[in-house]
Amino acid sequence: MNPGTYRHVITIYTVTQASDGQGGYTETVTSLGNFWANVNPTSVSRDFEMNQIVNTKGYTIKLPYTNKFFTEKDYCEYLGKRLQFNSIINNNNEGFETIIEAFEKA
């Protein structure tokens, strides 16, 4: 693999829930660390929500092999944007890289 392919630095966060003892829960955001990645926009679509146009931008994120395990509840920050993970390919570390499909709602 060409190391120059991974030219963007992203920070990946995971959200965990813990019981608050009163029937509800609290969410805690934890950083999994900074990773070198290749981030490319994939599509732009327009959706209507409450009679307003909401842009949804898709991104493909490629990471080299890592021993971290990502889920669809995780998200990353890239150039000030919050990208929510939608699907994760090769997360079982059978390949050389992890491919993540993510989206940003503006």
Give the name of the CATH architecture.
Answer: Beta Barrel
Count of helical regions? 0
Uncertain segments of ≥5 residues (pLDDT<50)? Answer: none
C-alpha termini separation:
33 Å
CATH superfamily membership: Protein of unknown function DUF3599
User: Describe the biggest sheet?
Assistant: 6 strands, antiparallel, barrel
Query: What does the oligomeric state look like here?
Result: single chain
Annotation, overall tally of beta strands: 6
In short:
The protein has strands at 8-19, 25-49, 52-64, 75-78, 81-89, 97-105.
Strand and helix layout:
Layout: E1 8-19, E2 25-49, E3 52-64, E4 75-78, E5 81-89, E6 97-105
Keywords:
106 residues; mainly beta; Thrombin, subunit H; 6-stranded antiparallel β-barrel
Can you offer a commentary on this structure?
- The protein has 106 residues and is mainly β.
- It has one domain: Thrombin, subunit H (Beta Barrel), CATH 2.40.10.370.
- The chain has no helices and six strands.
- A six-stranded antiparallel barrel has the order 1-2-3-6-5-4.
- The model has no long low-confidence stretch (mean pLDDT 82).
